[in-house]
Each structure stands twice: as structure tokens, then as C-alpha cells.
Amino acid sequence: MTPERQTVDVAGRHVRVTHLEKVMYPSTGTTKAEVMDYLVRVAPALLPQLHERPVTRIRWPDGVAGEKFFEKNVPRGAPEWLRRQTLPAAPNNDDDEGTELVLPFVDDLAGLVWCANQGALELHTPQWTVGPRGGVRPPDRLVIDLDPGAPAGLDECARVAHLVADRLRDDGLGETVPVTSGSKGMQLYARLPGKRSAPEVRQYARDLAFALAKQHPSLVVAVMRKELRGGKVLLDWSQNHPAKTTITPYSLRGRELPRVAAPRWWDEIGPGLDQLGPDEVVDRLARDGDPFA
User: Fold this and answer.
1) How many degrees, rounded to 5, is the angle at CA 223 between CA 204 and CA 171?
2) DSSP secondary structure string for all residues of 48-90
């Protein structure tokens, strides 16, 4: 029988784990140990997504059937080896001044196991990074969140994703990576050279969203008002605000069924697109590789 509390060696770091048999997803019986196993298997793809980005966690200590809460700061009792940095609440933002936060960085496999033990199923990250000496860099990626308004769904998101990708390519941002969110919609990521400020990137994303909404008014909307979103896809440009975070590619989601924010290949983005579970994502990585690579 597994002890309720134990310390395990994870790549040379000591990580305390508890209640590995706890069911995190009652609909499938998925346990905390199985969540950890998933993270171990996708770590080669997930850790580069987390690299040098502070991690906001959404925690379900008693599984997805229980209460959840957001956590930005490093919690009490966090291991000493966990990297942390004191930063303003919205760094690299010319408009806002916020309070300071002590933010954690999940740089290695031990950090992933620690997150899973905390019930932190969702790992969210900003579009900017922090250097080893604490310097906050400009955004190195742009993200457009595609959020469908019922009865629209992933099929509509797929159509809009191609429109967005074409516009980003025309604007010189190169190829993008689509990610089905593990929830309702999807995200598109484009690499940036790190020369634009966060407000400049946010303004560009806003202009793009409103331009596409004007060109495709029956399919795309750029404002969040619910009465305008029915049957359309919202292009959420606000995810590029420096204070905002987005679900990290390869992170689990805290939904009824275990689903993953799953990077996809462009030839998949069409009718019949579906959200993926953890076993599917692991199998795809082994078979097809990482679209972000």
C-alpha cells in the first residue's frame, strides 16, 4: 500500500508527494499518480513551453469535482529549489502599475511533479519571459485565442484559424502553431523576434481581430459582448496583455473529462476536429513529434 506521504527523488531533487491514489477526474477515475505519469511522459515537450515563463496555477486539491482556486505567488511550503522571482504584477506594460508578486518558474521535471502534487492541473503562462538574472524581456510570441459562441464549435474555429494564420503570414510573422485548447476552442501561436513592447503587440493583435471581424462579419467577432457572439468565433486579442496568461501547450485542463491543450498539425485543422486526451497526446508525440519543434 502506498504511504499517504512520501518523498521521491526526481532527477536529483527531493519532492514530497501525497495521496497518489486520489481521484482527480471522477468521470474517468484518473488519479494523481496518473496525472504525474502524463507530465513525466510529455515533459520533453512541455518544459520548453514553460522555460523562463512564470507559471500561474489553477489548483483542484480534491480533483475537478471539488473547488478550484488560482495561484500566482509561490505558496508556503514550496521547495527551496523552486526558482522564484519578484516581479511587478504587469511587467513590460507602459499603461499599468501593479503590485509585486513572487512568481514561480517550473524549469524541470521535479517542478512538474510538485505542481501535480499540489493539484495544479492547469499551468498558465504569459507571452514574455524572464532571464536568469531577473530581467523581463519583451514578448517572444503572439497568441490569438479562438473562442466559439454556441452553436459554433471547433469546426468554425478551424475555418477562422486558417483566416488568422493567412493574415499573420501576410504580415511577416511566418508559420503559426494551432493548439486545440482542451476546452471549447483553440489558440494560434506565432513567434516574435522580441523587439516589440507588450502594448505594441497587444495593439497589433487587436487591429488584426477587428480587421478580420469586419471582413468576415458572419463568422468572426472581436468584442466580448455575449449578445454578439452567438454562432461566431471571438478572436480574443486581450491574451497579449502583459498581465494575462494563457493555458500552456501540453497542460492538462480541469474539466469533467481529462483533456489537454494539444498542439496540432495544420493538415488536421478542418471539419471534425476534436479535443484530445492525455493518452492521445502522448501517443501523437511519440509517433508524429512536436509541432512546436
Assistant:
1) 25
2) HHHTT-B-EEEE-TT-TTS--EEE-SPPTT--TTSEEEEEESS
Domain residue spans of the chain: 3-125, 137-243+258-292
Segments of the chain with pLDDT less than 70: 1-3, 94-98
Element (H, E) at 143: strand 141-148
The per-residue pLDDT for 97 is: 58
Dihedrals φ, ψ of 287, to 5°?
-85, -45
Q: Which fold has domain 137-243+258-292?
A: Alpha-Beta Plaits (3.30.70)
In this prediction, residue 274 carries a pLDDT of 97
- Domain 3-125: CATH architecture, name and number where available: Alpha-Beta Complex (3.90)
Instruction: Give the closest residue to 4 by CA, choosing from 26, 25, 32, 24.
Output: 32
- The kind and range of the H/E element at 40 are helix 32-50
Give the C-alpha separation, 258 to 30, whole Å. 8
Check residue 98 and give its pLDDT.
64
What pLDDT score was predicted for residue 3? 54
Report yes or no: 59 and 119 within 8 Å, Cβ to Cβ.
yes
Cell numbers at 149, concatenated: 459562441
Question: What span, in angstroms and rounded, lies between the C-alpha atoms of 131 and 19?
Answer: 35
Angle, helices 109-117 vs 32-50, to 10°: value is 140
Looking at residue 93, what is its pLDDT? 72
Per-residue pLDDT tens over the stretch 260-287: 999 999 999 999 999 999 999 999 999 9
Q: What are phi and psi of 96, to 5 degrees?
A: -110, 150
Whole-model pTM? 0.95
One-character DSSP codes across 122-136: EEEE-S--B-TTSPB
Looking at residue 216, its pLDDT comes to: 98
